[in-house]
Amino acid sequence: MSSLKLFRAEIANGGMVEVMPRLAEVEADVQGLVEAHMETLLGVRFLASEYGTGPVHGGRIDSLGLDENGAPVIVEYKRGVDAGVIHQSLFYLSWLMDHRAEFERLVRDRFGATAASQVLWSGPRLICIAGDFTRYDVHAVREHRRSIDLVRYRLFGGDLLGLETVASVSGGMHADRRARRQAVARAAADVQGASMMELASAVDEALLGLGDGVNRVERKQYRAYQRLRNFACLCPPQRSKMLVYLTIDPKDVDLVPGFTRDVSGPGHHGTGDLEVQLRTPKDVERALDLFRASYGAA
Question: What is the DSSP annotation of the chain?
Fold first, then answer.
């Protein structure tokens, strides 16, 4: 947040007063605030706090959670800058991968048997929240084949929290963009031939091209595009169209029959309450502003 300035309007005199950023007094303050609102802030359902890793590992994981796609999440907090946060988090991730049954029991106890059976072990995540990170931290996460998000926090006044993604790396998904487009295209070709193949390729390229730090998560029912949290979910092609769900409030959009729809009531796969129906490459161009808005909100 070093470049972000926040100002409060003074109604009485018509002036503006800068709200100065600050760090938390202690690390536990950040942890408590995030754990109490984890789903809103990170798109992660809270599972456990200060979870002991047993006598062999001899540690305590700050927070455990489950993200929107069913991936296990470890969240570690530091009040300021700490050179050991990434290595510590990777140490705990190693423990997690060796104790899958224990984690699934936690999920079952909190969210039920269905959620426990659908844990996405191919995409475990680390989220490190700290006052700041060094350039060595940013370089380090890009060298690891793990999904890691570095998030900088700042407190403003007594009631405002700012979060900024400093770096986001998706582990196990380092194929180049052309290879990813080809994989999506082949899947679509099995469904509806060349037109769906081209449409799937165009949607994938548009979503991946919105900016740095876009991760793609494969699930059986949908493909999620993620920037710390999901901003788009692409469902497998239907006979003549593709459906994309965006995390935009449908009330903020002028809905167009046959193109956009409010699905906050009906159930559907993936996340997001705005459904976008795509039938041609022109529809993809038409939807770009909506894609950008959802990406920005994430």
Answer: -TT--EEEEETTTTEEEEE-EE--SSHHHHHHHHHHTHHHHHSEEEEEEEEE-HHHH--EEEEEEEETTS-EEEEEEESS--TTHHHHHHHHHHHHHH-HHHHHHHHHHHH-HHHHHT--TT--EEEEEES---HHHHHHHHHSSSEEEEEEEEEETTTEEEEEEEEEE-TT--S-HHHHHHHHHHHHHHHHHHHHHHHHHHHHHHHHTT-TT-EEEE-SS-EEEEESEEEEEEPPP-SS-EEEEESS-GGGS---TTTEEE-SSS--SSS-SEEEEE-SHHHHHHHHHHHHHHHHH-
